[in-house]
Amino acid sequence: MARKEALYYQAEDDQKVRCRLCPHQCLLKPEQKGICRVRVNEQGSLYSLNYGQVSSLALDPIEKKPLYHFYPGSLILSVGTFGCNLACPFCQNYAIAHQDPATQYVPPEELLLLAQRCQQQGSIGVAFTYNEPTIWFEYVRDCARLLQEHGQQVVLVTNGHIEEKPLEELLPYVGAMNIDVKAFKDDFYRRLCKASLAAVKERVEQAASRTHVEVTTLIIPGENDSWEEIDSLAAWLASINPMIPLHLSRYHPAYQFKKPPTPEQTMRAAQRQAQKHLKFVYLGNISPESNPTYCPECGQLLVERYYYQTTIIGLDNGVCRQCGSTIPGLVMN
Predict the structure, then answer these.
(1) Quick one: 44 and 59 in the same domain?
(2) Strands annotated E in 159-280
(3) Residue of 175, 256, 245 lying closest to 217 (CA atoms)
(4) pTM for this structure?
């Protein structure tokens, strides 16, 4: 594995180090790894173990991230590593987040070349996704700078559990983020994710003021599917910007969680409740999966989606063909 001295840490007594990348603020003894499994104390210095180590690489529809209002209908080169700084027992990508997948070293310059080749197939750039990209901080930062210099878009698909300063360093290079808000109760975050809802809310607000943001919430029966919680989540997002797209994703059993799948009627009820506050609320993991986008002013069909097949219907350069309204927050080619 590639070793690179980490950013955002400070030395403590007895060769201990305090990691300052995420809200866990791990205090590490020599040879001890952080909660994320990818940052380790080596003789009083903090090192990243996953710099350039790629576990997953694919050319995906942008809608798969999911990002519905950022270059709809495009492709994006998607890349991931291993590790995560949350402990969600329902993790959908547990094989790379919580296990030890095979990896291949891909330096930033090589990732740029791959992105440029994929551009010929309709790719707009690179999405750091699959596992948690913020714990890949040093690599993501180096790649993001290089990609932006060469006209490539950079996307982060993240749980948002990062400190303010490192995120602020990344944001000038990031075109869009999908942030996973796993629930709207701190008890859920502490009990199931070993994390902080307050920290994630702060990062959503920070990112939404600087770049394109969409939010995803996995709806789990008996955990975060109440009327009150969905309403509070949507009202909070609307207080930031009612045009933020919210993706409500249907839970299926995975990793350590064996609850049955979320009933479809629960998903549709959650969508109706969220739509009382937000202009764009989409459902994921429901079949048949149709998620059209309508003009919030006149109701004209703008973008038709069926699974990952996307067709631009009623838009000209981000403007509704029927009423002439510009659709706020919709980023087009």
Answers:
(1) no
(2) 176-180, 212-219, 246-250
(3) 245
(4) 0.97
